[in-house]
Design goal:
globular; single chain; two-stranded antiparallel sheet; 17 helices; two-stranded antiparallel ribbon; 345 residues; mainly alpha; 6% strand
Length: 345
């Protein structure tokens, strides 16, 4: 986001963009305490604002997230109690996150009513907005509807809907109003808000021990997907998902990892990966022994995945589909690596 502020500041629209105010708002959001913002204010009148932001952005890899508060005496000398996890703490943490985003104006463009003054933008009823998306009335405020009981589907639906409704304000203007003194937020942008939201939600899902995450890329970006059990598989899945819906392997990942995927969806995903590998078959045969290449196709041809003939295994447990999917995903990566080595630069 800092790079975007710098780019706009260097454009010819400085007078209209109020980029110094944008920079101050960004610094207040990104850091604990006012030190970076105040340092920018000191540099700004003397023409050093751009240089300050550029230097700060260059040092981002050296910065750390806020450390946990050091424990006090009573905490250090009492038995350690694990942090609560599971369904209830996760839903409560989600409500707190939404309230924090609302306070920063991230929901004002598409969800919350924002400014109460009659000359401001059209006011929205948050419950009506959520009902339009989920078909469930009276959800806002979330803290109140949570008390009447959320089911799993409703909670996971809310996670995805809020992802699509967040947008980050670039500017804020203080508004004195008899009903409520407040900031008006303007200049909304969607991309950075969704990146931040996914990061926050995935942290709380992981802390709660729930086996889902919001996808960061691919055709299922912003939708809940199942999480592989180890880091290596997770990295491979993300790499393939980044190809998007137009790529057969990327589509296979989206099909397989969707929270609502069926056995037939997962079977189709494995079949798609086998088709990807089939496309490399000739070049692989030209550059490796036939018996070695044949082994790459043996599993899909032996199990009831592709040809559906009497020689195939069709009574295996559906749990094998997980193994088949990840085995074939890794095999596709292997095949593409081998092919890349054979193609002249």
């Amino acid at each position: 986001m800092g790079g975007a502020v710098i780019a706009r500041a260097r454009s010819k629209e400085l007078a209209d963009l109020k980029w110094d105010q944008q920079a101050e708002l960004l610094l207040e959001e990104a850091f604990l305490g006012p030190v970076p913002r105040d340092a920018f204010r000191e540099a700004w009148p003397y023409g050093g604002g751009l240089g300050f932001l550029a230097e700060l952005e260059g040092r981002l890899p050296q910065l750390e997230y806020p450390a946990a508060r050091r424990p006090y005496w009573t905490q250090r000398h009492q038995p350690i109690v694990d942090e609560p996890s599971g369904w209830i703490p996760t839903t409560k943490a989600f409500i707190e996150l939404v309230e924090k985003l609302e306070a920063k104006g991230y929901l004002e463009q598409h969800l919350t009513e924002g400014c109460p003054h009659e000359v401001c933008a059209d006011r929205k009823d948050p419950s009506s907005v959520l009902k339009d998306h989920l078909g469930v009335p009276n959800l806002w405020p979330l803290s109140k509807s949570w008390g009447s009981g959320w089911g799993e589907d409703l909670f996971y639906g809310l996670l995805e809907v809020v992802h699509d409704l967040v947008s980050r304000p670039r500017l804020r203007v203080w508004h004195d109003h008899p009903a409520r003194d407040h900031y008006d937020y303007r200049g909304f942008t969607v991309g950075p808000a969704r990146v931040l939201y996914r990061w926050e939600v995935n942290r709380l899902l992981a802390a709660g021990g729930l086996p889902y995450r919001l996808a960061d890329q691919g055709e299922d970006e912003g939708r809940l997907v199942s999480v592989p059990g180890d880091e290596a598989r997770a990295e491979l899945v993300e790499k393939m998902a980044a190809r998007g819906r137009e790529d057969l392997a990327g589509h296979a990942v989206a099909l397989f990892r969707a929270r609502e995927s069926t056995e037939q969806d997962r079977r189709a995903a494995v079949r798609s990966l086998a088709d990807v590998l089939e496309g490399h078959k000739k070049l692989l045969h030209d550059n490796a022994p036939d018996k070695d290449i044949s082994e790459l196709f043996h599993i899909a041809n032996r199990f009831d995945i592709r040809h559906h003939d009497l020689k195939q295994c069709s009574d295996y447990d559906p749990a094998y589909l997980d193994w088949l999917f990840y085995w074939y995903l890794a095999t596709v990566e292997l095949a593409e690596t081998l092919v890349a080595k054979q193609v002249p630069a």
